[in-house]
Design brief:
This protein is of the alpha/beta class. Strands 1, 2, 3, 4, 5, 6, 7 and 8 form an 8-stranded mixed beta sheet that branches. The protein has helices at 36-45, 62-68, 106-132, 139-146, 153-162, 169-172, 191-200, 221-230, 244-257, 283-292; strands at 21-22, 50-56, 74-85, 92-99, 189-190, 204-207, 234-238, 260-263. Helix 1 (36-45) packs across helix 2 and helix 4 packs across helix 5 (153-162). It is globular. The relative contact order is 0.19. The structure holds adenosine monophosphate, zinc ion and fe (iii) ion (FE) (2 copies). One fe (iii) ion binds next to loops.
Length: 303
């Protein structure tokens, strides 16, 4: 990607060359396995210059990540919002990355709390279904393992591994298990409302892995066109769940709609095999996000 004519401010900590920018990662504040503090340290060790912390439906990791931010790493505070498009039957779940929004924005705070509560209800129901079929796992134990972080299927997957019914997280996500048979919908945020709430809080909304067909149904281009008109700022193209053809399609659509394009690892620690920085975002797209945000600033060595 071209960085444009003017060089723009290179993120602090960049030691020369192209900065390495990873805009989508998870910590123990949701379903990652590194604490927010360990995550920011690991990011710098992995040679990243910019890291976004984007836990599912929570900003709980922002403070510990901020406190532990190593010199040379710019921290972008964000979240991955569990959304749903209700304009089709059955409705389709999708993920919206929100960057640099005000974490105290009342409506957004309320929606995130509601979705986290909905995840608990859904998680308990999934566990009940599994127990009814003779799988010996325990919801209370799963909640303890999640340690207050936003609970999700990866936590249930670990319980299935502990119970010895599957060998790996990947196997736990196959159709026989959490991928389909024991998959229940969550009461997610309407995606148009989510875009509006992120913008209202001064944040920048980017759709995560919009063409990840291996995760299930994806939304049509026409919806992305409507979301762009409603305030969506960008699309994540470089993601491990996108094939090369899907990445190209996302880039082409973003180009048509004037949306920025990101790339990221969607790192989850040992819950997934992908490494930090496996996919990255270009400086120009990063700068567009920062320029469009007014909720909270990025955190750099100047702070
Ligand atoms: P949930 O948010 O509870 O619906 O769970 C979805 C989460 O599981 C997402 O963060 C995905 O990154 C993660 N996930 C989906 N498929 C897999 C997989 N095969 N292995 C590990 N994590 C996965
Ligand atoms: Zn996750
Ligand atoms: Fe996601
Ligand atoms: Fe994610």
């Amino acid at each position: 990607m071209s960085a444009g004519d003017k060089p723009g401010p290179v993120p602090p900590g960049n030691t020369g060359g192209r900065p390495r920018i990873d805009l989508h990662t998870h910590s123990t504040a949701s379903d990652g396995t590194l604490t927010p503090a360990d995550l920011v340290r690991a990011a710098r060790q992995a040679g990243l210059d910019v890291l976004a912390l984007t836990d599912h439906d929570t900003t709980a990791g922002w403070e510990p990540a901020t406190a532990a931010r190593p010199a040379g790493l710019t921290l972008v505070r964000g979240a991955e919002l569990s959304c749903r498009w209700y304009g089709t039957e059955p409705s389709i779940p999708l993920h919206l990355l929100g960057y640099l929004f005000d974490p105290h924005s009342p409506e957004l705070v309320a929606e995130l709390a509601r979705v986290r509560a909905a995840r608990e209800v859904r998680g308990e129901r999934i566990v009940a279904m599994l127990c009814a079929d003779g799988v010996d796992i325990d919801w209370a134990e799963i909640r303890i393992a999640a340690a207050g972080g936003t609970v999700g299927r990866p936590h249930i997957a670990q319980a299935l591994i502990r119970a010895g019914v599957v060998a790996t997280t990947d196997e736990a996500f196959t159709p026989n298990w959490l991928g389909e048979r024991y998959r229940l919908p969550k009461d997610d945020i309407d995606v148009f409302r989510a875009v509006r709430l992120v913008r209202q809080a001064g944040g920048v909304p980017v759709m995560a892995h919009p063409r990840a067909t291996r995760r299930g149904r994806t939304v049509p281009d026409s919806l992305i066109v409507e979301l762009a008109a409603a305030g969506l700022a960008g699309l994540e193209a470089e993601h491990e769940d996108h094939s090369p053809v899907e990445r190209d399609a996302v880039r082409a659509l973003a180009g048509e709609l004037g949306l920025l394009v990101t790339g990221s690892s969607d790192f989850h620690g040992t819950h997934k095999s992908v490494r930090l920085g496996a996919h990255t975002t270009g400086l120009e797209a990063y700068e567009r996000i920062v320029a469009a945000a007014s909720g909270v600033p990025v955190l750099t060595d100047r702070d």
